[in-house]
Specification:
- The protein has 521 residues and is mainly alpha-helical.
- 65% of the residues lie in helices and 1% in strands.
- The chain contains 20 helices and two strands.
- Helix 6 packs antiparallel against helix 15, helix 7 packs across helix 15 and helix 8 packs parallel to helix 13.
- The longest helix is centred in the C-terminal third of the chain and has 35 residues.
- It is globular and about 65 Å long.
């Protein structure tokens, strides 16, 4: 999802997202031979080939797409919720959650470097696991991003109304939907440019806040709270660094603490998997994807831990109430009241960035599903710019319907539809880890992709260029962690709905798959 995070104040903090994949390879069930052949050509030539996706994303695009993917309105606004749950210990939650997300993206990147396709999750699940897994992965991700787009476009009007209160919110939603859809039809390089500059705006905003906060601390500038700005405030304000313990019941019956905050934090990282989605349209995936993936850790350190650490040093954590953004509070506390308007602009660009990424990813997902035989064939066609235009327009049209649902039945949309979007991130991450284990089994059997083909056993595994660290145990650690997250979600009234919705949603996907197979038979 992640930029992609207006729902930081709605359900989680950012959205989980997944990828779309290219045509099926030799082991993919149900893939069309023509689609596979054209993808093969696209992977081994730099010249544009009619009917193939273009490898037009440069290193700077991928780096900024990956960086911007973790920064959304969930950080700017939704971080208040996580701080209220855990206090300064939220920094530990971001570090732990960030490590798990890093391992998930490393697992995805291991496959993307060896077998780069436009997308990832659905293609890899189909080729290395089963066609059913590819169907579930693909449609789960596509629907998740439709819901994320729904939320982003439904709130874009509130940011526009900050300056132009007379403009109806549905007009703002319609205008931005048309603009971003048109941009996606121009080609992947245009998508990369839009995301590059959207990310630059968000990054500059966060760095400016960090520098401003450090200046307040260094020069001991007075603040509205009357509390001297200092990193010692992490330990002296309220009940200290870990005010609510690992997990405890509050007076109102809700659960708080570090573990409950970890649930919110995990969903704030949704969107970092966008690295894998872009692999098939990247100029040099074997060089660029590993670099972008490994940079995830320092991004988390700088843009989450450093930013929130500085905020809680300047503004006492127990005074961050969520009524306004912590980023606004830090400037308001020293008399810079223009921060609200600046942040409103940043959040508007963040919303545009999320929808831009959502539409790009969803069009590639539908393209992949069509090549697998899991979606109508027309979605697998490309225009002269190498864009799956049918996928772009179809996703945009469904998003329109979803946005109308928000405006007409907001309670239904946010309580139930967003619950599916929340739990679908866990489904997506789980499929990535299981698929990575299956990928290694296929590689060891001698049926690996590209240069790995023909090599078997440990020799084949050693030839994997970008290996998942401690691959014999890492997937199991991540899967146990994700299972623990689902258990913790059951302790929260809002997240409990998501768990139930997730079970129903999985059942719907599995039944839908069976129905498609019956029709083909």
């Amino acid at each position: 999802m992640s930029e992609r995070n207006t729902r930081g104040g709605v359900a989680a903090g950012r959205d989980g997202a997944g990828g779309a994949a290219g045509a099926a390879g030799t082991a993919a069930a149900g893939a069309g031979a023509g689609g596979a052949a054209s993808e093969h050509i696209a992977d081994h030539t730099t010249a544009p080939v009619p009917g193939t996706l273009r490898k037009s994303l440069k290193n700077r695009h991928i780096q900024l797409i990956a960086l911007g993917g973790a920064i959304g309105t969930g950080l700017f606004y939704g971080s208040s919720e996580s701080i209220s749950l855990a206090g300064p210990a939220i920094l530990v939650a971001y570090l732990l959650g960030g490590l798990i997300i890093f391992l998930i993206v490393r697992a995805l990147s291991e496959m993307s470097v060896e077998d780069p396709k436009a997308g990832a999750f659905s293609y890899y699940a189909t080729r290395y696991w089963s066609k059913r897994a590819g169907f579930v992965s693909g449609w789960n991700y596509w629907f998740n991003y439709i819901l994320v787009s729904m939320v982003e476009l439904s709130v874009v009007g509130s940011f526009v109304n900050y300056w132009f209160p007379a403009i109806p919110q549905w007009v703002s939603a319609a205008v931005f939907l048309v603009l971003i859809t048109a941009a996606n039809l121009l080609g992947v390089s245009k998508f990369g440019e839009f995301e590059f500059w959207f990310a630059v705006i968000k990054i500059v905003a966060v760095i400016a806040m960090i520098i401003g906060g450090l200046a307040v601390i260094t020069f001991a500038l007075p603040t509205d709270s009357g509390v001297k700005a200092s990193f010692m405030n992490w330990f002296t304000v309220g009940d200290g660094f870990l005010p609510n313990g690992l997990m405890q019941r509050a007076d109102d019956g809700s659960w708080t603490g570090l573990l409950m905050a970890l649930v919110v934090v995990m969903f704030s990282f949704g969107g970092t998997e966008l690295i894998g989605i872009t692999a098939g349209e990247t100029e040099d995936p074997r060089r660029i994807i590993p670099r972008a993936t490994n940079d995830i850790i320092w991004r988390i350190l700088v843009f989450y831990i450093a930013a929130l650490g500085v905020i809680m040093a300047v503004v006492p954590w127990d005074r961050i109430d969520g009524e306004s953004s912590p980023f606004v509070q830090i400037f308001d506390s020293v008399g810079v009241h223009a921060a609200a308007g600046i942040l409103n602009f940043v959040c508007l660009t963040a919303v545009m960035s999320v929808y831009n990424s959502a539409l790009y990813s969803n069009s590639r997902m539908l393209y992949s599903l069509a090549k697998q035989g899991n979606a109508p064939a027309y979605l697998g066609r490309l225009n002269k710019r190498g864009v799956p235009a049918a996928g772009v327009l179809t996703s945009a049209a469904i998003t329109v319907i979803a946005v109308v649902v928000v405006f007409v039945w907001p309670e239904f949309a946010f309580n139930y539809l967003m619950s599916i979007a929340t739990i679908s991130a866990v489904i997506n991450w789980t499929i990535i880890m299981v698929t990575e284990m299956r990928f290694r089994k296929v590689v060891a059997s001698g049926r690996g992709p590209g240069e790995l083909a023909g090599h078997t056993g440990s020799d084949a595994l050693e030839r994997i260029q970008f290996k998942l660290p401690f691959a014999h145990v890492t997937p199991y650690v991540v899967l146990v962690f994700l299972a623990a997250m689902v258990v913790l979600m059951c302790f929260s009234a809002s997240y409990r709905v998501a768990v139930v919705a997730g079970v129903v949603w999985l059942a719907v996907l599995l039944v839908a798959y069976q129905l498609t197979q019956v029709r083909r038979a």
